[in-house]
Amino acid sequence: MLHRFNTKTAALITLFSYLLIFPSIGTTDEKPIKMTTQDMIYLLFTAEESVTDYIIDELTTYPADSLISWITNFSNYSLPEVTGKPTRRLHKINNSLEAPYYIYIPTSYDPTQSTPLMIWLHGGVSRPEFPDEDSEIGDHPIFTVCEESGMLLLFPLAKMGCLWWDDTGIANILWQVREMKMQFNVDDDKVFIGGFSDGASGAFHLAMLAPTDFAVFFPWSGYIPVGSLVGKMPVYVPNLQCRPIFASNGGKDRLYPISRVEPFIRMAKEHSSEFNFIAYDSAGHNYEHLKYEWPLFKERTKSFIRKPLKPQLYWETSDLKYNQLDWLEITELDSTQIAKDWHKDINHRLTDDRVTIGFNTDREWEGEGVMVATVMQDSALPACKIGLQKGDIVIGLDDIFFKDIKGLSEAKSTKKRGEAFSMTIKRSENTMTFHSDFPPSTEYDAFARKNPSGAVKATRIGNRFEIETSRVGAFRIKIHPNMIRMDQPVVVSVNGKDASKISIIPDTKFMLENFIKNRDKRLLWVYAIDINIQ
Fold it and tell me: Are 230 and 198 in contact (CB under 8 A)?
């Protein structure tokens, strides 16, 4: 531990001494202090971006092969201060939002060895504040699983305004992944992500928007369209083919009944041969079926690795914030084009047949009946129509009377959308009966749509890339040395037309800048081919 601390300290002292003596780097040839290559590689991994520009300029003088070897094999990480228990940290997103998160370092962690990383997304995210330690961390089984498997663990937290399915929440997760990679020896090809309930839905959402960092997705008791339904973010089911997914749900799950889940499972399987699903018939919306999933999870995280250089890719997007998969990047959309026959909008119509009265319950009420906490301001809902008020106590629907929320739920289960009904309440000392009706059923798209999407199908055969595009104005192919013969030119065929031959000359500055951005030791892109579609 002392050796690693001194290594970093010496490198920083050397760099800052250099910057103090020569604040305008490059204006003189006299350099009284010379940083070693080891110092610069170390700072490339650990220094803030404010000083990495100088490091990059210095390292670009070295051959690409040497840089790739040094970065890929880097293992000079510091020993962690704490192992074997969760540690709370903060990410300052902006001046008004700090997102807490937890990390767990297994007691077996060796900073000289690359180590798998698991990201766990919790459920119940529609809350005004981030959850506290007792409600989400506690004795969560994921900590035991990661300890037994020797895996690093990242446990982000979410709330309204920082959800698994909004821009802020997604950027927060990806920032935390990069922070883990800066501080710990993460195996970039064994970064796994999963979760339960809303966390599972969030994992599905990330698989369709930003999957490049991850090897495998484990969504348990989730619902594929939730992120799009709630967050109004367009996502595209064909993107699920990019990574293996192992999903499961309970057969008695009342929140996400199998009858609602199955149409989306079928859609996913139609587009991905690596989408796997199990329904546990006796399980509800709880951790009961995870006792079967944990052993499978341990085996799969041992055997699966990320394969980001696959010869065939498909990516679809309508938002350039989420424009890339592995070596393929859509850099411009063109909505004036007509979509190709193979580029179809995959969606599903849902029927809203939920029986909703239109009020939130007071969960602290301990008397008989169900007390109204707030009334939803929706004129189509019965509560608003009849003038239900805060503090009213609902005790009956038609001829069914009840004493608690369970009884209310059972009474609602006998009703259908569009039906008339009566509701009995207590208000102050009076018992009152109102008559109303539930709104008729409505249909809506499962996946939000705003602007037309663009899509790319890409195939790599040796040094030849065959690209088909639909509603795309420009795209980029990023080159890794393991993808092609670097000593031979590359040919890119776009929509059946060959472009000129392209000689690949490694661009070390491009490679290092991408590494600083993504902190991925495996995906060291050495060149970018930018294609504008005429």
Answer: no
SS3 298: helix
Report how far residue 526's alpha carbon sits from residue 65's, in angstroms, rounded to the nearest whole number. 10
The CA distance from 501 to 491, in Å, is: 5
Task: Calculate the alpha carbon distances from 232 to 202, 323, 347, 448, 449 in Å.
Answer: 13, 17, 14, 5, 8
Strands 216-220 and 245-250: parallel
Q: What is the DSSP annotation of 175-189?
A: HHHHHHHHHS-EEEE
Amino acid found at 287: Y
User: Which stretches does DSSP call E strand in 334-414?
Assistant: 349-352, 359-361, 370-375, 393-397, 400-401
Instruction: Please state, in angstroms and as integers, the Cα–Cα distance from residue 206 to each residue in 194, 219, 226, 242, 425, following that order.
Output: 10, 11, 12, 11, 44
Distances (CA, A) of 279 to 80, 202, 257, 260, 292: 40, 19, 11, 13, 11
The CA distance from 78 to 74, in Å, is 12
Residue 279 DSSP class: E
Q: Which DSSP category does 468 fall into?
A: E
pLDDT of residue 6: 43
Both structure tokens of 387? 């003038």
Q: Which residues pair with residue 108 across a beta bridge?
A: none
Average pLDDT over residues 340-353: 94
Place of tokens 């199990």: 278
Is pTM, for the whole model, over 0.90? no
Dump the DSSP string for 134-166.
Answer: HHHTTT-HHHHHHHHHT-EEEEE--BTTB-TTS
Angle at 305 between CA 301 and CA 310, to 5 degrees: 150
Q: For residue range 83-100, what is the model confidence (pLDDT) as tens digits? A: 999 999 999 999 999 999
